[in-house]
Amino acid sequence: MRIVAAIGGSIIIKDYNYKKFQEYAEILGNLAKEHEIFVVVGGGKPARDYIQIVRDLDCGEAKCDDIGIEVTRINAKLLLLSLEDKAYQKVPHNFQEALEYSASGKIIVMGGTEPAHSTDAVSAILAEYVKADLLINLTSVDGMYNKDPNKYPDAELIEEITADEMLEAIKGKDVKAGTYEFFDMTAIQMIRRSALESIIVNGDNPENLVKAMNGEKIGTKIVSK
Fold it and tell me: Which of 70, 61, 7 is nearest to 37 (CA)?
């Protein structure tokens, strides 16, 4: 099975702790014995901090995105270091490079690609580009809720949602660099048009990646229609 795993920067670089990279490297390495694995890594707080400096310099949102992309690529390199020879030791800068590097038979790890695309969008486009069987988005929450679980104790997890319903839910949200809080519109549109099987799970526990791949009931499943 060909898998694209999107690991949020808020997960992997949250505490600047090497152990999270090691945990993911071990799980990804084991999965790669039986599956073809592509990974997209986000920028997290370091990216947002650098983006704010660029914004304060009044350089424009495209430049903000550009700096954020560089941070995602640093995070990708850290994961490559953790994976050692299990991964192709170069970060692709675009989808064609990712596909080319995958001919090595090793795990591919990348960050962002170009301005206006969050790493959620990158992972969805990559999944379509390489014809992945499954997209797993590992984020800082258990999935999508009917309202903010951090504010409302009675918030309920949505176990399954259509891409159209997600698009309606995020309509009008801020799309500035570094502000993609949950899932951005481009990612959902890609999921919809490619009928891509997608699951959002909590990445704080890397084992959830395995559970999602095994079809266990976890997180929020996005269906194309």
Answer: 7
Q: Give the count of domains, the chain.
A: 1
| CATH number of the domain to which 218 belongs | 3.40.1160.10
Strands (E), 92-219: 108-110, 134-139, 160-162, 198-202
Per DSSP, the three-state class of 109 is strand
Q: Which domain holds residue 101?
A: 2-223
Please check whether residue 37 is in contact with residue 71, taking contact to mean a CB–CB distance below 8 angstroms: no
The structure tokens listed for 185 are 């519109």
Spatial contact of 134 and 197, defined as CB atoms under 8 Å apart: yes
Which residues does the annotation place in the binding site for ATP? 9-10, 44, 48, 139, 145, 148
Query: What's the DSSP call for residue 219?
Result: S
Interval 82-125: pLDDT, tens: 999 999 999 999 999 999 999 999 999 999 999 888 899 999 99
For 58, 86, 124, 144, the CA distances from 181, given in Å and listed in that order, are: 22, 31, 16, 12
Binding residues: 9-10, 43-44, 48, 65, 113-119, 139, 145, 148
| β-bridge partners, 202 | 139
